[in-house]
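Please, structure for the following, as tokens.
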Amino acid sequence: MAIGDIALQKVQAISWRRYYDLTKPKVVALILFTALVGMLLSSPSLVPWQPLVFGLIGIGLAAAAGAALNHIVDQHIDALMERTQDRPLPSGEMDTPHALTFALSLAAVAMLVLVMFVNLLTAALTFSAFIGYAVIYTVYLKRRTPQNIVWGGIAGAAPPLLGWTAVTGELHTHGLLLLLLIFVWTPPHFWALAIKRRKEYAKAGVPMLPVTHGVAFTKLQILLYTLMLFAVSLMPFITRMSGLIYLSGAVVLGAGFVLRAWRLLRDEGDDLAMPTFGYSIFYLTAMFAVLLVDHYMAPLLGLI
């Protein structure tokens, strides 16, 4: 049998589901949601269909490509951690060449779509976020500093700004505010998970904060960041980007996050770590939903 035939059989043997898993679909879904909200908030009227559709396609493909490259770089770490052992590469159901070809193909198509059908600014920012996550965070920061998720979070916070620029073609302080919101949200979100998984990170040699500085210190940092997040979450109202509907939602959701962070700090064990992590995901989704509701409903109700 020819080498080419063997390679073709291997490609056919890899389930499409494994390629799908490489993209971290749940993460990409949240990225696309925040990007969509950024698009809708950027315009007082209906968003043109071309930047809406092609912007989401390009941003989504770039995010999927970054996730796939993350799988490739982290495959040896993933093999040592219980929650990641079943991923396509450490499980042995996919090899690096196929995963790399898939990731680079997604990235190339993403850039082509954004350049041709959206605008150069969004393409450049998306590429920067892609490099920031797949290379700077995954290859360098994750393995060298307990502040990895703080600085690496800049790339993960970009989607709503990318959505904004996809429609407007320009940077705006309101789009940057959306980025800031996710940037400050990322550390308490991820550190809650890291507390629960600290032994696995230690085994894999990843210097996450609870591994290098202990659980008590990490819990304190989570509380401090949720307080900072509460303050940042008020800025859309203060800058008149959003109105009273958003302010009400931000106060209630933010108070809920601070309360959970306080309870986590006071708890001696780590039983509240995963509930706090779960609430953080709900918090971000709900915050962006409230931003959207406020954008469309506040003018109708005269609550600007």
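Residues 1-11 have pLDDT under 50 and may be disordered. Residues 175-304 form one domain.
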